[in-house]
Amino acid sequence: MTLDAARAWLAQDPDPVTRAELEQRIAQAEAGDADAQAAIADAFGARLQFGTAGLRGELGAGPNRMNRVLVGQATAGFARFLAEREDAPTIVVGFDGRTNSDVFARDVAAIMAGAGVAATLLPRALPTPVLAFAVRHLGASAGVMVTASHNPPRDNGYKVYLGGDDDGSQIVPPVDAAIADRIADVAASTSFDDLPRADFAMAGDEVEQAYVRATAAIAGTPAAEPPTVVYSAMHGVGSATVRAVVAAAGFPAVVEVPEQAEPDGRFPTVAFPNPEEPGAMDLAYAAADAAGADLVLVNDPDADRLSVAIPDPDREGGWRQLTGNEVGLLLGWDAARSAHGQGALAASIVSSPGLQVIAEAHGLDFSTTATGFKWISRVPGLVYGYEEALGYLVNPGTVRDKDGISSLLRVLTLANDLHARGSSLADELIALAAEFGGFASGQVSLRVSDRSRIPAIVQGLKDAPPAQLAGSDVVAADDLAAPEHGEVGDILRLTLADGARVMIRPSGTEPKVKVYVDAVSTHGSPHERIHAAEQRVEALKEAMRPLLG
Q1: What region holds the Alpha-D-phosphohexomutase C-terminal domain (predicted)?
Q2: For the residues of 34-102, what is the DSSP string, one character each?
């Protein structure tokens, strides 16, 4: 059956690259090649599921891959949903620098227009935050961003936003299921060639310029001698927009990493285009050494995440990459001091519990959400939100999604203010520990080649959680997918007698099981607090490794 499905797919595939690959694979499979048969079974035996993250997967032919046919089906289904939702719907479409992102984006715009949805395509490869901004700025009914963010080079994706009452946030249930139903109807009844197409509008530079102005407005005043900053776009689309925002805010130009400044979907200098991966920041550190820099700031390829590194002579190489939680707490403390007791802070459930302590100390509301900015962005009265995976929402009045460019500017502003006082981000982390306690966090990840293993690993730990970890009793093991815990997600939360916390979940975007470890200490000096919490995190990480198999 899968060979029949492959032949039927071949008949409608408009992409010469995927057509050629599929033709060869079909011929090999028909000749009895077991590898080709297995590859076809994988590509045609299932379908990429449309969910709250839209679509994301490896490029290639078949319904279980990202390709023009799948994108066309998704778009036609989404168009039906929009037409049912409102009269005269509109959409804005953006794309990043990954392989085929521009091709997919043009298909989205043309098919939307052909279905009666007035479509506007952004003029070139731009950051995801610019598309998220454009949905609100243009008053669009919806937005689609063609990106796979920080996934491996062979991946691409389709990210969906809604306007109107959703205010430019990503989709959440039950909308995802409703769209998925309409996509399934299209896939079952309509060939790619038969999907109507029509002309669409092209946006000019005004949308990006408006984003630049709105983002630059959140900066402080540069000091007389601001810190020297090295920046990398990691072969993504952040560079031009970051340069424009930094200039509009009045800061000196960042020193770019030249090898990674231009969009390149091959990501030739990194094993994985994700700042969290080992070695991904090495070229930025080398550039920082050459420039005598005070700070390293790195976006992921679609510029919705931000990594921060600071000088540390005690570390090998002389630089320390801050964790997402360290940056999240620094930005949260910064936001809390500016909120004057009004509004709410929010963090995903796997992020540091430290943000709640900061919120309560400043008289602010606090919300813990399920993972993902689709939830964080919807918190009432939000002034700041973050998740530990390098995602920060510092300007919810402008963008209702994580934004690696506005957060870069807030980090730069904070570093600038500290620099003017003879201080630094490192000193601010010590001050935070003195004020609220030493919070530390860490991760253990298991990457698998077979995604089907992931549910069994997580379920096995739920069925038989450890009674003790690294010398401390596990006093609670909570399945957060259960109704009594609010059905937050497929997460196992282990609470330890010493106040530490361990959380295990499948990644929503990568073939990984992720373990999040958090510990806190309020005893001793700030340095002693941080050291004690870090030591506890390392002990718990080691205790978890064998439990993942």
Answers
A1: 478-521
A2: HHHHHHHHHHHSS-PPPBTTBEEEEBSSSTTSB-HHHHHHHHHHHHHHHHHHSSS-EEEEEE-SSTTHH
- Which pLDDT band holds residue 1 (cuts at 50, 70, 90)? low
Pairing of strands 90-95, 142-146: parallel
Residue 143 has pLDDT above 90, yes or no: yes
470: which DSSP letter?
Answer: T
User: Does residue 265 carry a pLDDT above 80?
Assistant: yes
- Cα separation, 176 vs 188, whole angstroms: 18
Give the model's pLDDT for residue 509. 67
Residue 88: closest CA among 161, 159, 139, 145: 139
pTM: 0.94
Average pLDDT over the chain, rounded to whole? 95
Tokens of 459: 């379920």
Query: Would you please indicate which residues are annotated as catalytic (active-site) residues?
Result: 149
pLDDT of residue 224: 82
Confidence of residue 453 (pLDDT cuts 50, 70, 90): confident
The Cα diameter of the chain in Å comes to: 73
**Residues 333, 339, 344, CA angle at the centre, nearest 5°?**
80
Say if residues 432 and 333 touch (Cβ distance below 8 Å): yes
Q: Is the preceding omega at residue 174 within 30 degrees of 0, hence cis?
A: yes
User: Cβ-count burial of 27 within 10 angstroms (0-12 exposed, 13-18 middle, 19+ buried)?
Assistant: exposed
Q: What is the pLDDT of residue 189?
A: 95
CA distance 296 to 283: 11
Q: Domains along the chain?
A: 1-45 (no CATH), 49-204 (3.40.120.10), 205-436 (3.40.120.10), 437-548 (3.30.310.50)
Q: What 3-state class would DSSP assign to 297?
A: strand
At residue 547, the 3 state secondary structure works out as helix
